[in-house]
Amino acid sequence: MVGRPLLPASTRRRRRLVAGTAFVLLTAAASILVARKLTHASWPLDNAQPLLVAAAASAYLVSFLFRARGWHRLFPPGDCPGQAGCLASVGAAAAGGAVLPFRLDYLIKIGTLRRLGGVRIGLEAIVLSIISLGMIDAIAMLPLSISATATSGSTLRGPLLVVVLFGIGCCTLFVVGGRVVRLPLLRRSRRLRRISEHVGQHTATGGRRDAIVAWFYLFACWSTRAFGSAALLAALGLSFSPTTALSVICLGAAASVIPITSGGVVVNAGAAAGILLALGVGKNIAINFSLASGLLLVLSAVAAALLGVFASMTVSAIARRSLAPGRA
C-alpha cells in the first residue's frame, strides 16, 4: 500500500497560516455576534474610546514580550532556546489556548518551540521550564492578588484568598525545593526527583538570580495586563479602577489553570463577566469587556507569535549567512 505523499514544508506553513488567520476572523465574528445578542452594542468595542483601546492592546502585546523573556530565564543551563523562539511559542500557545480544552495549549507551546529552525532542545528541558514558569507565575501574581484581596469587598475576598494561598504554597516549594528531594517518595520516582532537583536549582547562586529576574519579568507581565484591562474598562465607559482590573486579572488567571476548563480565553471571558457583575458593574460593560478583552488578547497573541517567528527566522538566516564563507 502506497502512503500519501508528504506535502512540502512551504505548503504546510501556508496552510497553518491560513488556518490561524481563519481562527482569528472566526473569533472576531463570534465576539460581534455574542455582543449583539446579549447587549445593545453592535460589537464589543462599539462607542469605545480608540486611544484607550489602543493602549489596552499595546499593554496586552507587551505582556507577552515580558512573559517570553521571563520563560527564557527558566531553562536549564545548556538547553536554553532563543528569546524569539520563546516569544513565538508563548504567542502561539495563548492564541491556540483560546478554544483548546484540558490545557492542550502546552502542546502548542512545546511543538512551536521544537519546530522553529535552529532550536535543538530536549522535551524534558521544555517541560521542566514550563513547570518553573507556572510556579514563578503564581509567585509573581502574589503582590497583585494580595492588593486585590485587601481592597475588594467580601464577595470576592474568599476566591482571592485561594489565589493568595496558592502563590504562598509555590513560594514555599521554591524555598524548600532543595530539601524536598530527600523525601523517600521522590527518591523512588525518577520524574518527581528530576522535577524537584530542577526546582531546587533555582535556590542556588546562579539559579536564584535567573529566578529573580524571571519573577520581575512575570510581575511586569501581569502588571501591564492589569493596566490594559483597566484601560479597556475605561474605554467602555467605566471609571479607571485598578482594583477592579486586579480582581478580574487574578480570578480570571486562576480559573484558566483548571485542567478541565474549555480554554484559556473562553474561561477568562466568562470569569471576567461574572466578576464584573458581582462587583456591581452594568451588564453591557461586563459582557462587552469580557468579549473585547478576549478578542484583544487573541489578536495580541497572534501578533506576538508572528513577531517571534519572524525574528527567529531572521536570526537563523543571519547565522547561516555568517557560516557560508567558512564552509566555502
| Main beta sheet strand tally, sense and closure | none
Low-confidence parts:
258-262
Oligomer: single chain
How many helical stretches? 14
Strand content: under 5%
Taken from the alpha-carbon principal axes, the silhouette is globular
Based on secondary structure, the structural category is mainly alpha
How many β-strands, per DSSP?
0
Radius of gyration: 21 Å
Order of helices and strands: HHHHHHHHHHHHHH
The end-to-end span amounts to 43 Å
Helix content: over 70%
Overall residue-averaged pLDDT value: 75
What report would you give on this structure?
The chain is 78% helix and 0% strand. It has helices at 9-38, 50-72, 83-96, 105-115, 123-140, 142-151, 154-175, 177-180, 184-188, 190-201, 205-235, 242-256, 264-278, 283-327. The protein is mostly helical and 328 residues long. The chain is globular.
Note the main attributes of this structure:
328 residues, mainly alpha, 14 helices
Summarize the structure.
With 328 residues, the protein is mostly helical. 78% of the residues lie in helices and 0% in strands. The protein has helices at 9-38, 50-72, 83-96, 105-115, 123-140, 142-151, 154-175, 177-180, 184-188, 190-201, 205-235, 242-256, 264-278, 283-327.
